[in-house]
Amino acid sequence: MNIDINLIKQLRDRTSAGVADIRSALEEAKGDLKKAEEILKKKGFERASKKADRATRAGLIEAYVHQGRVGALVEVACETDFVARTDEFKTLTHEIAMQVASMNPKDSSALLSQEYIRDPSKTIGDLIKEAIAKLGENIIVGRFSRFELGK
C-alpha cells in the first residue's frame, strides 16, 4: 500500500513514533489515521510493560504551587540522566505534580489510576506509559507529598 507522506508527518507530530512504526501502523490501518494512532499506542504500551523491571536511578523532583494555597512535591524516576533532562520528561514530572496538587491521591496506586486532569480519557498510568514508549526508559513515580494552607 502506498502511504501518503502527509499522513506520516501528521502521525509523527501526534505520537513522536518512529517513521517505520508509523508506516507499518498506517498500512495495517489501511490509511486510517485514527486507527493507526491506536495501533501505535497499543504497541507503545506493550513496549512499556517490557521495561517495568528495569532499575530507575535518575529522575527529577518537581514542585508545583497553585495560587500560593496548595502545593505538591513529587519524585519521578527514570533510568538515565539523559532522559531526565529531556523536555518530555520535565513536562511529565510537572503534570504529575499538578495532578497531586489538584486531586490529592492517598498513595501511588491511587495516583496511577486517577483520571488525568487535562484529559479524562487517560489515567496518570496511561500518561506514564506513553512517556515510557516515547522515551524508551522505565519511569516510575516515587514519593510525593501535597500541602494545603491551613491543614
Key attributes of the depicted protein:
single chain, 151 residues, alpha+beta, Helicase, Ruva Protein, domain 3, Tetrahydropterin Synthase, Chain A, 2 domains, 3-stranded antiparallel sheet, two-stranded antiparallel sheet, 7 helices
Structural summary, described in words:
- The chain has about 150 residues and is of the alpha+beta class.
- The protein has two domains: about 5-50, Helicase, Ruva Protein, domain 3; about 60-150, 2-Layer Sandwich (Tetrahydropterin Synthase, Chain A).
- It is built from seven helices and five strands; from the N terminus they run H-H-H-E-E-H-H-H-E-E-H-E.
- The protein has helices at about 5-15, 20-30, 35-50, 80-85, 85-105, 110-115, 125-135; strands at about 60-65, 70-80, 115, 120-125, 140-150.
- Strand 3 and strand 4 form a beta hairpin.
- Helix 1 packs across helix 3.
- The radius of gyration is 17 Å and the shape is elongated.
- The relative contact order is 0.16.
